[in-house]
Amino acid sequence: MVLVGAEVQGSSPDAIAKIATNHKLQFTITKGISGPSLSNGIPHMAVFDVKGDLVYHGHPSNPATEKAIKDALKDATPPGTEAAGNDPFAKPKYLVDERTWTNTDGKTLKAAMVSLKGNTGQFRFSNGRTFNFDITKLSEEDQTLIKSKAGTAPEKSEEEPEKNKFDF
Fold it and tell me: Of 90, 101, 103, 159, whose CB is crowded by the most CB atoms within 10 A?
């Protein structure tokens, strides 16, 4: 499931960040939206199923909202649970379970490592968002852990890590 908040009242980035922090929001908030307007009311929620079809839109507190979300998720397979069959509550399989990673500048973040291709690791935050990162920019301790879990020393990747996904 992907959650995206759209700010449409012209608030400053600082004001948006303050609200997101105060409410402990752990999803992307965009400035504005494009596409067909579904409503003039605020707040407003749109629910799309796994095929991308709009299956509901309305006020988030409407009793139909929860049912629409559950119905839309019934056919979803969480990332990393393919080996667990159809159990949507099965724990995802990771190369390295969620932990605190440290880069060469001493900055930290908490994420699981999903996979490794060359020197590019795919990481996943607890909210489900994934990003790619060059593991050679991690601490020696983190690189050693990754090599031990992967069973091999990473090679040069032909793929460049995605840029601007996370300023780490």
Answer: 101
Domain boundaries, the chain: 4-73, 83-168
- In whole angstroms, give the CA distance from residue 16 to residue 10: 10
What is the residue type of 20?
A: A
3-class state of residue 56 by DSSP = strand
Percent of the chain with pLDDT over 70: 76
**Domain covering 83-168 assigned CATH 3.90.45.10 in the classification:** no
Q: Return mean pLDDT, the chain.
A: 79
Is residue 4 a contact partner of residue 28, using CB atoms and an 8 Å limit?
yes
Sequence-distant (6+) residues with CB within 8 A of 130 are 79, 114, 122, 123, 124
CATH code linked to domain 4-73: 3.40.30.10
Indicate the helix (H) or strand (E) that contains 147.
Answer: helix 140-150
The model's pLDDT over 96-127, given as tens digits with 9 standing for 90+, comes to 999 999 999 999 999 999 999 999 999 998 88
Global pTM reads 0.43
Q: Which residues contact 67 (CB under 8 A, 6 or more apart)?
A: none
